[in-house]
Automatic annotation (TrEMBL):
Keywords: Calcium, Cell adhesion, Membrane, Repeat, Transmembrane, Transmembrane helix. This is Cadherin domain-containing protein. GO terms for biological process: cell adhesion. One of its GO terms (cellular component) is membrane.
Length: 62
C-alpha cells in the first residue's frame, strides 16, 4: 500500500516498446502527505500509452 509515513518515495519500472524493441526506465514518485486516507485501486495493473508528440504535464492515467 502507498503510505507516506512508511515510505515517502516510490520507484516504478516503466517499459516501452516500439516495433518489438523494448526499453525500460525507473520513475521516481515523491509522495506528499496530504491526507491519511488509504488509497484504493480498482485494478491490479494499469496500462497507458504515452506518445512521443505528447506535451509535458499531459494526463496519462488515474
Amino acid at each position: 500500500a502507498v503510505d507516506y509515513e512508511s515510505d515517502p518515495i516510490m520507484k516504478l519500472i516503466v517499459a516501452a516498446t516500439v516495433n518489438g524493441n523494448y526499453a525500460y526506465t525507473t520513475v521516481t514518485v515523491n509522495l506528499q502527505d496530504i491526507n491519511d486516507n488509504v488509497p484504493t485501486f480498482t485494478q491490479d495493473r494499469y496500462v497507458s500509452a504515452v506518445w512521443e508528440e505528447m506535451r509535458r504535464n499531459t494526463f496519462v492515467t488515474q
